[in-house]
Queue: 3 jobs
Job 1
Amino acid sequence: MAIFRPFKAIRPTRDKANLVASRSYLSYSDETLKEKLEHNPFTFLHIINPDYKDKIKLKGVEKFKAVKEKFNKFKEAGFLITEPSESFYVYQQIHGNHSFEGIIGATAVDDYLNGNIKKHEHTLTAREEMFKSYLDTTGFNAEPVLLCHKENTTITAIIQQYKGTRAEYEFTTTNKVVHKLWLVNNTDDIDTITNAFATIDNLYIADGHHRSASSALLSETSNKENSQYFMSFLIDENQLNIINFNRLVKHTNGLNPSELITEIGKSFTVTKKGNTTYSPTLTDEISMYLNEEWHSLIAIASTVKQDCVSKLDPAILSNNILAPILNITDEKTDKNIVFEAGTTPLSEIKNKVDSKEFEVAFILKPIPINALKEVADNNLSMPPKSTYIEPKLRSGLIIYPLD
């Protein structure tokens, strides 16, 4: 069973929600970040960049203490309020043709530790420790972990019920994404949500592996009740938009185009597709752009191991081309490979190769949710940068207090 409970959130006042909520600060260029900080006094970016005007930047715990101080100033100024009663939050995000709907609440660290919350990525110990220190020092978490679950008619029904009422927040951000949020503070509805999730055996981390791991670390050293839970956004797995990550490589390891194709042909059936952009659709198919021409690469069956990780397209590419032919053995650290989310148009990728910024590009298919779950169910990890999963959530819209 999944333990899911309401909490007293700290959140922006209704009139400032659109101004406070921000994307992850890592997603902004330096120029855009500076513009946001200088022209929007309410953005949550001020809290996580309290020293942006200082010539000498703070680091580590000193930086985290300044974050907490700025956070408290936002509360004192009335930009942020504390919910008077424990609540869940129905949240909807509309992005293009996709509508993502789910519930924000607190999930139990115990479920993460006992395997009821399943993961599909390795986490880095240093990042876990850093974020644990951040949580411990600041006393809040401002971005929920994205968890998915199997379809549940009771949960769907209560979300639809609240969607028929006036939203507490409703705004559109500059990237043309619509955000809506409803408060669920009715005790009967809270019980309905809690009991519905109790019937679900497993939750799967879609985004937020390090945040989950860091919360688990914090729970070991903190005796505060809220530290035994972490904020999450629970969504029907069928609503996730799983996008591929493509690979752009800066060299061909000394091989000319003909030689590279010959080497690839030992493990793949290679078919030329001309100059028109070509996306893979077939089983075990990858597309390649090389020397101003697109190619279809279909892995020869005998070269593909059938365990749940090795049969994924990123692993097929790594095991048969990147490592043995291009000598890229550690995709996490090798500076000769760049990952481009499938949201980047193929025409743009083509231009990057034509300009010789890169020598070759490999286009992969999105990985289906069942394949992701199979990896998690077997306690294994996906290859690096296998998925780009939407929705991407905003920081500061709902804040989970740890103090």
Note: The mean pLDDT is 95.
Job 2
Amino acid sequence: MLRVQEGDTVEVTLTNDKSSLHDHNIDLHAVTGPGGGAVLTNVTPGETKTFKFKALNPGLFIYHCAMPNVSTHNSHGQYGLIMVDPKDPALSLSKVDKEFYITQGELYTEGHLGKKGLVPFDSDALLDGMPNYVVFNGKIEGTPRLHAKVGDRIRMYVGNGGVNLVSSFHVIGEIFDEVYPDAAIGEGSAIFKNVQTANVSPGGASIVEFSLDVPGKYLLVDHALARMNKGAWAVLEVSGPENPDIFGKVEMH
């Protein structure tokens, strides 16, 4: 995740490793200019190019490779997030205890779900929008990757690298106190309150915030729930004292 401030002049250098088989570039949705920087960063294997841009708009934005075939490059995981923090302190996001970076993506592979080893890319599945895997941050969860404590205020920067599916981002057992829809920040931008699920479009993002009152394991999911079977889940593991006033077992007599 890249992070800059509104008004910053940013230099981006892209190197295409000499072992690469393909040309690449980078399109940052935070950039004002042709191709979002892609037209200035076309790099052949072994080549390096640098361009600069001024961050004019605050918000959370996707960046990705935009070299044809764009959808093929993106479905190999060539995407990420860039956060442009507001310059005006009055518009800045409030302080939180923990921030997490979550980007949903799709993998299109030949063979059955769970096949081991190197697997070929399935271009027909890409065109049909039928990924074998839908994952957070590039892989299926093994052990929990996110950890926090009771009492923590949490902010999640949520992106969708796509390339086909709209994400219905949800944390099971939590309600988002605040959601910045489409990750828009700044004067006049909406803030939604008490939201259960945030929609995140391909090539888009959202910012969600909530506080932790009860310990336990909380599942992050795309609430198009069949996608959980394809890997669209992760765990936020929360430690700390129980809070029976909010959540607890009732003994039967």
Note: The helical segments are 70-74, 123-128.
Job 3
Amino acid sequence: MNMRPPALDLPIMFIDVRVTAGAIAILDGVTLTISPGPPTVLIGPNGAGKTTLLRAAMGLVRPSSGFITWSGRESSDPRHRAIMFQRPAMLRRSAGGNVRYALAAAGLPRGKRHERAAALLTEVGLAGLDRRPARRLSGGEQQRLALARALARDPGVLFLDEPAASLDPAATKSIEDIVRAVSARGVKVVMSTHDLGQTKRLAGNIVLMHRGRLIENTSATQFFATPRTEEGRKFVAGELLV
């Protein structure tokens, strides 16, 4: 499969980023570089700040202090990035209609949308379901449809927030297979999960977060062999971080 050129928005750099809600720090002084390469996986308990970090990297959340740059720029056209939320809403359209809507939003000419939508549905394992109402798809099928909509932007960077949460093993495997295929063609995948097995299967590097702080940022091999922090050791051992 052909590799795409490096994404225009990379590296994405967080420099001492704080995001607050009232007196609560959702991100607390995060400094992080997201570079091209295999998937970056954000791990940590609920409330650690993973979703907010993804939204900030997408450009949907502005830092309360500190700053974020995309390939050295403090602002960047988000059309080269896409995000899939943990519980994506399905439009009251067919599966194909959902994808064609996303293609229209991405600026693809009308005459090319049906062919491209069919290719995207095939890519995510939904070939033949073009006319099925999106809201009648199973949970796993809806997640794959949401991935197809995100890929309609042809992003260089793809953010995924708990993409396989609450899915059964077969549906989870389908999502993971798509993530691998997308990453293999050069799209930078940044995803959150608290599934340790999924982290082991997909991660190139790992960012462990806890209470809004970045605890560890290292290769998956290094993290699972010798975590450098007490929080990391507890996470690898399956203990709760509180």
Note: Residues 169-184 form the longest helix (16 residues).
